[in-house]
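TA notes. Do not distribute before section.
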Amino acid sequence: MSKQTHSFQAEVAQLLHLVTHALYSNKEIFLRELVSNASDACDKLRFEALNNTALYEDQPQLEVRVSFDKQARTLTIADNGIGMSEQEAIEHLGTIAKSGTKDFMRKLSGDQKSDAQLIGQFGVGFYSGYIVADKITVESRRAGLPAEEGVRWVSGGTGEFEVEQITRAQRGTAVTLHLREDAEEYLNAWKLKQIIGKYSDHISLPILMEKEEWKDGELLVPGDENGGRQPGGMVKTGEWETVNQASALWTRPKKDVTEEQYQEFYRAISHDSENPLTWAHNRVEGNAEYTQLLFIPAKAPFDLWNRDKKAGVKLYVKRVFIMDDAEALLPSYLRFVKGVIDSADLPLNVSRELLQESRDVKLIREGSTKRVLSMLEDLAKHDQHAAP
């Protein structure tokens, strides 16, 4: 089938300008967004396959793969999740707030909502790829459709995008970013692993990258201008390895986490060399669903009296890191508290970098403040009992 050219919805054209110039305060956020979208696609497949296991085809193991090609200057984030049909690609990638998740959530009711565990209701994360890319190619096939009904979507992020039907054996979606010259730092395995470790370590799916090893001597590089030979360096081995933990400590039942694991986690997030004085790990359900893992340090931090000191709570939404220093989640007088709050349904602004003032935020703030004050009260009582 021949290529079709479509115009972006007017709001998307405005959004693309905003994304590439102002929306995200640091460039590397694009990788978090695209990995998060890939994870969502796998969550959707898992949910739909509850009633139709045939959707897994011959790939029951869900995963996200991140790869790069230095010669072509491309970075690809691929998943074997639910995928898209041609019409879905036109709708979801050409119009704003139609990541598919919003529609998907609307169709669910009752307990299914919490079971589905979906994020991405804003539908703008995909466009963050244009922070680093001057062209994006998406290849996809929806689970359950024949191989001949794959789709390729291509756009330079201006006013139009092209769509054509392709044959794609594998279900799921591959997003390939054609990087700008000033974004070549993302063609580096160490850099990519660092970003994945920072933002996506606790995504519940394995995130895979191709292993590399050092080769001495001259390397044959096809099509290279230096006669095809270059000095030694890192080469890909063809094997894939998981580069995230794929398991968030705070999502595990308390009985499955040892005291040493809690202490190690505290030291990792606080950069404190000592163990915490105490901690609280709870899953809160009701009007706002969230998990809290909060630590009280053994010693007052040196900058305790600095009123400008940032809060010590990290915010996650469904195990995806959103921000450090989430001041909205605890009052400033508890700024010495360290920990993680992971929300199931927290509303965020379009860039995910600032929390919207909302009922959910207020409920989490109230609940977390009560929990910390209760911990401090218990410590005070214990001190009284321990006194001679």
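Switch to the second chain here.
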Amino acid sequence: MTDLSRIAAIMSDMDISVTSAQALSGGHSRQTWLVTCADNRRVVLRFGGAHSHIEAAILNRAKPVVPVPEVIACGAGFLISEFVEGQTLEALLHAGIAAGEGEALAAQLGQSAAAIGTVEFDRSGFFTDGDLSVGKTLPQAHLLAPFCAEWLSKSGRFTSSETERWKAQCAQNFEILTPLNQISRLVHSDMNPKNIIVDRVDGGWKLKAFIDWEFAHSGCPFADVGNFCRFASEYPKGFLRSFVKAFEDAAPLLTEGWQKQARVLDMIALSDLASRSVGHVVGDKAAALIRSWTANGIPPLV
């Protein structure tokens, strides 16, 4: 069955006729389509993953605290949600945004990132079902250095000496994550400009939705800040400082060294990203950042 025929079959089961379907970028393990229905309504259909019911439950849990797409339907291997009008933050930053407007938008995003972290669970780990039960726990700090080194060694991007240096840097820093082991709050875990929809409203820019929650888990919200601040050079001057300040003011919990912990938490995601094949755009950028951090040390958050 082709993608288009599968889309038509899924929508037909809901008594909805499809006028057109357009493939969208985004999503690591799932295909994403913008579907126009016969009644002119537009929806987003994601399929290809086995855990769509978990993502639907995450969206419903996050909805009371931050804007997310409305879940329309969920079934075996697919999720249908509303199409949110606007553009990605990535597209907006590429086009350019005025300094004052940029800092105001960044503050909204920082406050919203903190709001995600107000959603609590019984323990940290990965969600296992539609009730968002937490099963497999996240690795302890002392186990993460070998994991990160293993990802790098499989990538074919790094020499053995580069991998060992990264492993050593991870080992030197991961102990500061130990105080975070008992934190069990909602983490988006892929908070970057391509997963944030914004739109112009009443003369200013407004957050419309956080999308693509497939990596969400229960853990420490500082990870989302580290993720967002990863590629600092891609933001205009003052943007990240406004984001971090707003998060700090609104966060439900902070530690004395939270900004350094946010950076170290992102070493996990960086290692995973760098394991992608050479030529993968984000993987290439992650590899460059790892080499920079290995050579120069972990930079301040802002």
